[in-house]
Structures are given as C-alpha cells and as structure tokens.
Amino acid sequence: MAPALSKFVTKKSIAGAISVSALIWLLNKKSKKRTPRTRNKQPNNEIQYVIKEDKPKSPKAHVNAEFFKQLRHLLSIGIPGIFSMETGFLFLIAGSLVLRSLCDLWMIQVGTHIESAIVSMNAPLFRQRLLTFFTALPLISIVNNLIKYGIGEVSLRLRTNITHHLIDKYLKGFTYYKMCNLDNRIANPDQLLTTDVDKFCESCVNLYSNIAKPLLDIFIYVYRLTSSLGGQTPLLMLSYMFVAGTFLTHIRKPIGAMTVQEQRLEGEYRHINSRLIVNSEEVAFYQGNNREKLTLLTSFQKLVTHLRRFLEFRVSLGVIDNFVGKYAATIVGFYAVSIPFLQKDHPILKGNPDHRYKSYYTYGRMLIKLAEAIGRLVLAGRELTRLAGFTARVTEIRKVLDDLNAGKYQRTMIADNKNDSIGSPGAGRIVPRDNVIKFEHVPLVTPNGDVLIKDLSFEVKSGINVLVCGPNGCGKSSLFRILGELWPVWGGTVTKPPKGKLFYIPQRPYMTLGTLRDQVIYPHTRAEMLRRGNSSDADLEEFLNVVQLGHLLEREAQGTGEGQGWDTVADWIDVLSGGEKQRIAMARLFYHAPQFAILDECTSAVSVDVEDSMYSYCRGAGITLFTVSHRKSLWKHHEYYLRMDGRGSYEFKPIDQETEEFGS
Q1: Residue-wise over 23-36: b if at least 16 C-beta within 10 A, else e?
Q2: pTM of the entire structure?
C-alpha cells in the first residue's frame, strides 16, 4: 500500500509542477500579446534616443583568465595590504567559518545522542543532553552573526577604498569633463561609480563566504568520512561535484553578459530621469511633458524587457541548478553512504544493531552536510558568473579613467580622422608663462574632428582687453576650452598663464551647495580663504557692493535658518535671480583676482550701468579680459577684437572709433 501511495503522490506532484509551469508560461505569453492592444500608453516604437554613443560596446564578461586578472587588480585596490584592516576582517570571517563548521559537527554528534536517548527511553539522559545542547546555542548564535558582521564590514571597506580610488581619478584635473565631452566609451559614469561598485563589493564578499564555507566543510567531512568509511564514498561525491560544476558553469555563461546589459540599461534609465530634472524649466516652457514621457517609457520598456528575459533565463537555469546541485546531489549522497553499509565485511558493521544505527545516523548526516556543501559550491558558480559582469563594468571605468589621465581619448570621429596636416589630439604644446596669452599656428578642432580654424596665431599681453565675436559655431567656445586645457591641442604652441591664474565665467554661472560666502569664494573653502590671508568677510562685502548686491547680505542677515549673513545656507540656484547669479560670478572673479579672465556672455542679464562699473573695477584690479559679447557698450572697455567668420577665417586687430561704429 505504501509504495503505491508513494508512486501516486510522486506522479501527482510531478503533474502539478508541470501544470503550474505551463500556466506561468501561458500567462506570460498572453500578457505579451495583450500589452499593445490594452495599454494605449505604452511607448511609441518610433521614439529613439542616443546616450553618448550610437552603439554602446559592452565589455565582455566571462569567467576566464581575463576575469581573474581584473578581479585581482580590483581587490588589490580594495585590500591595500596583508597587514590592513580589510585582511584582518577576512581572517575574522575565515575563523568564524571554521567555528561554524566545528559547531555543525558538534550539533550532529549531540543531536545523535539526544535522539538515541529518546529511542532508548532514558529520560534523565535525554534531559541532560538537551540542556547541554541548549547552553551552547547562544555561542552558536554569536558565531553566526559574527560571520554576518565580518561580511558587512569587508563589503563596506572594499566599497570605500575602490570608491576613493575611482573618485580620485575621476576628479583629477578635468577628467570628469573629458569623460563626458572628449571620450564616448562611458555613457553613465554616475551609475558605474555608485551602483555598480556597490554591487561588485557585495557580490565579491558574498562569493568569498559562499565558497570558503563549503570548501571548509568538504575538507572536514571528507577527512572524517574517509577515516571511518574509506575513500570510496567521499571520492564519489567529489567526482560528482567536478562533473556537475563543469556542466553548470558552461550553461551559465550568458549570465555575465546579461548582468552587464542590465546595469547599462539601469544607468540609461536613471540618466534620462536626471536629464529631465536638470532641464525641467526648458521642457515646461515647451510643454514637452508628453514627449519626455514617451522617451522615459521607451527607456523603461527596454529595461523591463531585458529584466523579464533575464528572469526567464534565471528561472530556467534555476530548475537545472536545483536538480543538479541539490536533488541529484542528494541521490548521489544516499548511494554513496550506502556503499559501506551494504558491504557485509566492512569494519563499521561490527557490533550490535544499535551501534550500526548510530554510525549510519552520524555518518549519514555528515554525508548530507557534505552533499549540501558540494551543492552550495556548485551553485556558487552562479554568483561567480554574476560577479564577472560587475567586475567587467568596474574595470571598464577604471581603464577609461587611467587612459584619460594619461591623455588618451577614444571618440568615433577622432579615431576616424585622417587629416595629417592638422595634427592629432595632444600633438600641440602648452607652455606656462605669466602675463601673456599667445597662440602660434594652433588649429581649432572639436572633439568630433571638425576643423573650425586651421591656423590661429595671435598674442595678448596683460593689460590688453580683447573682445571675441563671431557667429554661433565659429570657434569662440573652442578657443576658451583650449585656453582652459579642457580640450587637447592638435598642433602648434599655446603660451598661457598656469591654470590658477586664468579664470572663466560662463553665461550660466555655477552656484555650489553651501553658504553665501561659498558662492563668492568658490572653489575655495573658508579655511582656504583664511589661509590666503589677503581676503576677509569685509573684502567680500566690498566685492558685493561693487556689483551692487550689498542688499543681498543685509537681506540674508535678517533671515532665519541654519545661519545668518555670510553663513546662510540656501539653494542658491533657486534663491538668486539670473542677474544676481551673474553678478555673484563677477564678485567671485574679483575675489580670485587672476591675471586673465574669460567672460562668456556673463553679463547678458545685468544692466548696462552695473556692467560698466564691473568692467571698470577689473581694469583697476589689473585683470585682463577676454570677453564674448554682442553688446556695443562693451567695446570701449577693450583694446583689440578677435573676429571669427565661421568659415575658417579670422582677424585680430586693434579697436578704434571706426571699428566701434562697425561693431555696433
């Protein structure tokens, strides 16, 4: 009766599992078919967009020699040395895992003794052994949570060290600018620097734990079983581990590439959301919410489609994982443990039936633990493949940062440019020299390889203000980006003051997070201002008075909040009007007092009288100006003009009365 019932239950369970799987498949199939008809708000297939590059080239992610080389390099950053705190926590985890394995062995033995006392109906012995088991449980709980603490701390320390390393490179010089404007290999550096680094560290530490514990268990249980049952039983289990691990590793290969694609699409969706936040005012003026909604939904749909495909692959792979790594391993374990007990002349069978029962129970549990350890080790390959994806992503940004800091760029148009007469990125020279700006046969070339001016030559000494004019796209901004060393010099020689003696003010001034004082002294901190010794809050107040913003300090001094006056903290981008922000930027220029300043339409929202007083102050302070502006009122503050016609020609001449009339 029992075998028949067992067969019936087994058949019913299999049929039920097949029915549930078929139902899930049908529901998924129907939802895919029904989606376009029932949801009229789905993204339009015609919506297309590009983020940084037409065809993003995702790094290959496989568990191979290259992966282990990349992993070793990243771990050398996260774990600075053998005597570091990170190494200490790794040893703490290893020690805790050893204690946990010893606790497992002890619990098997005590559990056998407790059940033996129950079977033999010995109540006093049962209570004694149960009390012994109970008193040890707090220690076992401490060991378990000690492992969790060590894993969490190592993950945090890895993330801290790798993040510091990458951010140091990212914010070294103008690397952050070059990554977004001169190089198109990285589409979403924010995603790589935040989410991907976090997931890499978490996956790496989890893999360490998931591999170290099974390996330790396998070593302990193989030793115990071999010494008692012989080598045939554990050898069979280890052979199965090798065969199953090789098979599962082969079928898991797509996980690495799918993980990379998942992170890229997550970053793309996040970038589009942040882009809408940055440009919300412009979108609102155009009433472009419906168009932006379609773009957002298109990006989200791409992400969801990939996640669903990835989920279906993981579920299918999970069925095979469970069968091969757990259930088939259990079957092999039962067969392996039966080998010594089904041999009539095996030494372990000597003794009474109670002894054989205890031996089978003890070694059987050990073998089950061995089978579980082998199963976990086999399944750890899944995490290893996933780690390969995160490793490839983090390695990608590390290599790009190294290249950018070494002056190596990769951009489609630059790579394809074959015009040897112009030169190549970085072929020109930059010579630091005070009180002069000189271009000698320097071509103006965009990062895309577009030649704006083939040969630009002029010289400006301190005290000679220059007005730069010309149509849009003629090369005015390109000139300033070369002066600021944001773009590489393709040829010739640029002689200019060092970076700290050249200041740039854009049309849309940048307001930092912090106090009112921070807006004027940016990028200095208050401590740096005090160390300079030539500026105080009284000097800053004088600068505000020059730009006619003295009332701003009085207004904030009367307010309430985190501070008053100079120490007032606010969201200055929203608090200040467009004209006030431009005047704050001019006060910032007065504070830094550079040799040369580039003013790029930075007074377009300022009245003419205030503009006149600011330019007069610059002349008195000895600040030489390069100004881009179409206001005729500014010609009188300059001695020379540099006009570009947008067709590759330019002229650099002194300004006289006739020129002023022509310019106006």
Answers
A1: eeeeeeeeeeeeee
A2: 0.65
